[in-house]
Design a protein that fits this description.
The protein has eleven helices and ten strands. The chain has about 325 residues and is of the alpha/beta class. The strands form two sheets. It has an eight-stranded parallel sheet with strand order 2-4-5-6-7-8-9-10. Strands 1-3 form a two-stranded parallel sheet. Helix 4 crosses helix 6 (about 165-180).
Length: about 325
């Protein structure tokens, strides 16, 4: 990449020697090698063309570092705004990252917070008798007005074996209770656990707004969400060439239940799959969603913005 090309990568996301960014947090995404043994490309992609109507990134992790770059919160917001992403939901996965989310939402008007214990962390904490105390701290944070969602919570059968399923379900139900009692939306992490997630949602008290973060279901789950008024938040995974079931779900989803997210720094959309992700990459996913649904881009952006407001309220 030539020196002139670096200027097309937003400030704060350029290679470390090109950037004066300040850190947002200590957590980092693994720089593991690819399946073919080659080293993973940790260079952030160039910024896409701006969207015609602003949208909001419904799920991101600013406190995760990727590669050698660690953009500041302000740099992340500026890069996103430059391409028509006017705000974001900063999501906590444990007590410390949830505290970070609340503080970021207090400090920056274009950030709202979601807080929770991730289902994989719930299983680990339960092993050490620490889950209840962690959930108590999440409930204390939930009282803050800048917290608009409880999540990401749910079930993950991909990384947690059967021995941890009971703890995950217990944690999930407690998070649903907190969302109901505090009048917050809930963001669901559902990985390889569709049946049990739906079972719990069907027999537990629910908040008014339920969101499947990084929607990973097929047409059947999309129909279930449509019938129940549950929101489906699509990430860069929908753009992957092998995501045919997910793309079919996108076509079937009620337009009033559509949301968009990055889950950055993970799940970077095609053609940058595997590279670091950030909120400024949302336009790639939105354009793919519009093309897949046969929708006019500006109208889809308007719908996504309206749906986000319906779930989380105003920034």
């Amino acid at each position: 990449m030539s020196e002139s090309d670096f200027s097309r990568i937003p400030e704060g996301y350029r290679p470390a020697e090109e950037s004066n960014s300040s850190p947002t947090g200590e957590r980092a995404r693994s720089a593991k090698t690819e399946k073919n043994g080659s080293k993973r490309n940790t260079r952030y992609p160039e910024a896409p063309a701006p969207l015609p109507v602003p949208v909001i990134d419904n799920h991101t992790h600013l406190d995760f570092r990727d590669g050698s770059v660690n953009a500041s919160v302000q740099q992340a917001l500026s890069a996103a705004a430059a391409v028509g992403v006017e705000g974001l939901i900063q999501v906590g996965c444990d007590v410390e990252s949830s505290k970070f989310a609340v503080q970021a939402a207090k400090d920056f008007p274009n950030i709202l917070a979601a807080i929770a214990i991730h289902p994989n962390d719930a299983a680990r904490l339960a092993e050490h008798g620490e889950l209840e105390a962690a959930i108590e701290q999440i409930e204390e944070l939930a009282a803050n007005e800048r917290v608009r969602a409880i999540g990401e919570t749910g079930l993950d059968y991909f990384r947690t074996g059967e021995a941890g399923h009971h703890a995950q379900e217990k944690s999930f139900r407690e998070h649903l209770r907190i969302a109901v009692e505090h009048g917050k939306a809930v963001q669901i992490h559902d990985r390889d656990a569709h049946h049990d997630v739906v079972r719990i949602l069907n027999d537990a008290p629910l908040p008014e707004r339920v969101v499947f973060h990084c929607f990973s279901g097929d047409a059947e789950l999309a129909r279930i969400c449509n019938a129940n008024g549950w929101y489906m938040s699509f990430s860069g995974t929908v753009t992957f060439k092998n995501s045919t079931d997910l793309q079919q779900a996108l076509r079937l989803a009620d337009p009033q239940l559509l949301l968009v997210e990055t889950d950055a720094p993970f799940l970077t959309p095609h053609p940058f799959r595997g590279r670091p992700n950030a909120s400024y990459m949302i336009p790639h996913t939105v354009r793919f969603m519009a093309e897949t649904r046969g929708a006019e881009l500006a109208q889809l952006c308007e719908q996504l913005a309206a749906n986000t407001g319906a779930v989380y309220g105003a920034l």
